[in-house]
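Journal club side-thread
Mid-discussion, someone asked how the predicted structure for our own chain would compare to the paper's figures. Pasting it here so we can look after the session.
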Amino acid sequence: MKKIISYFIKYHVAVNVIVLTFIVFGIAGALSMKSSFHPLYDSRNISIDLNYPGASPEEIEEGVVLKIENNLKGIIGIERVTSVSKENSANINVEIERGRNIDVVLAEVKNAVDRVPSFPIGLEPPIIAKVENIRNTISFSISGDNVPLITLKQYAREIENDIRRLKGISQVKLTGFPEEEIEIALRESDLRAYNLSFETVANAVKQSNILITGGSIKTDEEDYLIRASNRRYYGKEILDIVVRADKSGNIIRLQDVADVTDTWSEVPDRIYYNNKIAIDISISNTNNEDLLATAELVRNYISEFNSTHDNIVLNITSDLSITLSQRTVLLLENIFYGVLLVLLFLALFLNARLAFWVAAGLPIAFLGMFMFTAQLGVTINVFSLFGMIIVIGILVDDGIVISENIFQHFQRGKGPIKAAIDGTLEVMSPILSAILTTLLAFSTFYFLDGRMGDMFSEVSTVVILTLLVSLVEALIILPAHIAHSKALQNNESKKSKISALFDRVNKFSDKIMEFIRDRLYAPYLRYFLKNKFFGFAIPIALLIIALGTLGGGIVKTSFFPSIASDRIVINLNMPYGTNEQITDSVASIIESAAIKVNEEYTEKQTDNLPVIQNIIKRIGPGTSRSTLTLNLLPGELRDFRLQN
C-alpha cells in the first residue's frame, strides 16, 4: 500500500486521469439512472382474483377461498398466504420466500387451484398471475360544472389515448364509473300479444349479437375467410334484432317487445371532486419507466388541456414526483452547505488551498458512486437519496484528518512530496479502521428479510460505494493534489494579499485553538487520567439514565418516526348490503364536517389560504364502502399540525 500511495503522490498525472474518469463516467452514470419513488425489486407476490357475482363475503370465503387455501398448504416456497373476501369478489395473495423462482411457484399455485374438486355455480374462472411491480406516479381528476358522467367518460377515454401515446408511459387506469350495460326491459303485455317467452327473446339476442370466425374457403384464385361480425355496443344498435320471423314475412323485432336503454351497472363506483362528479385517472410506472420524466410529461399535458378547454378541468390529486424532487433539492443543499462549511473552517484553522482540495473530495466521491450505481440497477429514489444525505457528513472526515496531518509534517520542515507520503501513511490505519467499521454497520441492511430488506439495501449500496470511493480519494487523490499544489509553500514574498489575510486569520484561529486546548481541554484530561474510576463512571451513569428513560416511558419508541402528512384518508365501511344512498348520505355528512373545519382553519391560516385544498369522495366499489381523501395545504406552508 505504501508503494501505491507513494507512486501516485510522485506521479500526479495518473491521479488526474483517475479524477477525469470519475467525472466523465460519473456524470454519464448519473444521467442514465432512472428515478422511482421506491427501489426497484423483483415481485414476490402471486395474486388469485375471484369473481362471484351476487355472493356475500361469507359465501365466497366458505365456498371458494378456504378450498383454495387448503390446497396451497404444503407448497414449497410459499412464505405467507393472505385473503380478502367482499361482496361479489375475493382476492388471495401468495407471498413467496426470498430467493425462490416465482415462475416455478406460480405453476405450483395454478396446479393447486386446478385440484379444487368443485367450485360454486356462477363463479367466474379464477385469474392467477404474478403481481407486477407497478407504482403509482401521478393521479388527476377530470370534472366539470353540470357535466354528465357519460360525457366525462368520453373525455377520459380520449385523455387516456393521448397519454398512452406519450413516450415512456404505458400504465393508465381510469376509475370513478361503473361498467356500462345495455338494459333490455321486456314488456309483458307485448310478449303475451306476440305469444313469446323470455327465453325466446334472450336466445334471439344471444344468437344475433356475436363475433365469431367460421373458417375459410380456398379457391384457385384466393382464400376467403368466413367471419360473422355482428356485435353491437350500444342499445340503439340492437333494436332491429329479429326475435321471430315466419314464412309469410311477418317479423317481430326486439323494439316491438322491449325497451332498450344504455345504463350503468348496479354496482356503484362514483367519484366526486369538491362535490362535482368526476373520473380519476392514475398513471403508474413499471420498472423500465422513469418517474420524474413521466410526471413532467403528464403535468405538461394537463396544463395544455386546461388552457384549451373551458368547462372540463383536470386537477392533480397526487404527485409522488414532488416528494422525490424535494429530496433531491435537499441533497443538493446539503452538498452545497457541506462544501461551504469545509472551506470556511479549514481555511480558518489550516489553509485556504487545503480547504479547497478537501472540499473537492465531496463531489468526486459522489461522481465515483454514480459510476457504479448505474451499473447495479440503483435508481434515484427516496431511499437512495436518504443514503446520500447520510453519507455527506462522513465523507470529508478522512480528508480533514489526512490534510491536517500532511500540513503538520510540512511545518516540521519536510518537503511537499515527503510530507504528503509520511502524513498519509501515518493516519492510514485508523482511517481504514473507521471506514471498515462504518461499512460493516451499513452492510447489515443486506440481511434484512422481506420488503424492508429490499428497500434499505439501496441505502447500504449507496453508502458503501460512496465511502469506498472517498477512501480512494482520501488516500490517493487528495495527497497527490496537496503535494503538487500551492497549499504547501513557504515563499512569503510570492504570497498574494488574500493569502496574507488568510495567514493572519489562521494565526488568530490558532490562538483560539491553543486557548481551548491548554486552558479548557488539558486540565480536564489530566484530572480524569488521574481519577480513572470516576471518569469511567460518568459514561456508565449516562448509559443507565438513558436506559431508564426508555424503560420508564419518558422517551417514546416507534419503528418509524411520525411524519406529518399532507393528506387525510377516511375509510367508511358500512354493514354489507347497505343501500348505496345510505352510504352516500353518511359520507356526505363527513364531507360537510370537513368543509366546516376547512372554513374555520382557513380564517386562521396565513394569507387565508385554504387548509384543505380539495376533497375527493368515492362511493364504491360496492354499495357499503366509501372513501374520502382530503388533500391539505403543503406542510411547509401550513400553520397547523395534522393532529390539530
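Post-session note: The first strand starts at residue 45 and ends at 51.
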